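Handout for the seminar on molecular recognition.
Each group receives one record of this type.
Step one: identify the two inputs.
Step two: read the structure output and locate the region that could contact zinc ion.
Step three: write two sentences on what you found, then compare them with the reference statements printed after the record.
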Amino acid sequence: MISLRLLGCNGGIGGKDRQTTSYLLQESTIIDAGTGLTILDLPELAAIDHVVLTHAHMDHIACLPLLIDSVTAQRESPVQVWTLPEVIDILSTHIFNEKVWPDFRKIPSPDSPFMTLNAISQRTAIGGMFFTPLSARHGIPACGYLVENEGVALAFSGDTEDCPSFWEAMKQSSTLKAVVVECSYPSALTNIAQVSMHMDVPSIVARVAELPKEITVVIVHRKPGLEDAIEAELRMQLPSRDLIFPKPGDVLSFG
Ligand SMILES: [Zn+2]
Ligand SMILES: [Zn+2]
C-alpha cells in the first residue's frame, strides 16, 4: 500500500488552494519541498525523515531550507535529502552556501548534522519504500521517480517536457497503479510549454492514450489561472480515463 498526501500540487501560489509541489508518502517521506509543506503543523514537519527531490527549481525546494531550520529542536537525527548528484551540486553552490542559508550539513557539527545530502542514481531503499529515478527533460538536472512498496508502484514525472523514456518506463512496470504527471499548460499555450520545457494538454492526451486503462492519472502542476481550462480539455479529450485533479491536502491511497 502507498498512501499519498498531496500537500502541494500546483504550478504556483495564490490562496490556500494553490501550493507548489510537495507530496507526503506514508508518514515520513516527501517528494519535493515546495510551499505545500506549509500546510503541515510542527509535529508533522518534525516527522519527516526523508526529502526526495526531483530538481532544484524554487517551486520544488522553497520550503526545504525552512523545514531543516524549523525542526532542529524536535529531532535527534538528520533530515536525509536525496537527489541526483548534479542537484546536490546546485543546492550546495546556490542555497546551503553560508550566504543564502547555512550549510546544515555542518551544523551543529559535521559528525551530527541537522541535514544530509545523499546522491541517488539507481533503485534505493528510502523510508521503507524503493525509489528509482526516471528520465525527465527540463533543461536542468531533473528526474521523476518510480516509488514501489509491497507490490504497488506509483510514478512521478517531476517537471518535464514530453520525455519518451519516462513513458517507456511506464510500460515496464507491471505493478504500476498511478502516474502523477505534470500538465502546466492548456492547448492554447503549447508555445510557452515548449520554451519552459513543461507538459501541455496535447502531449498528455497522446501519452495517456497509450497507458493501460486501469492506471489512474493524477494531473499536477497546473499553472495558476489555467486550472479549469486544463481540466476541461483533458476531461473532454480523455473521457474514459480515471483522471484526478487534486487540491492541496487531498489524500489518495493505492494498494
Ligand atoms: Zn521546474
Ligand atoms: Zn515546478
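Reference statements: Residues 227-237 form the longest helix (11 residues). The two ends are 4 Å apart (CA to CA).
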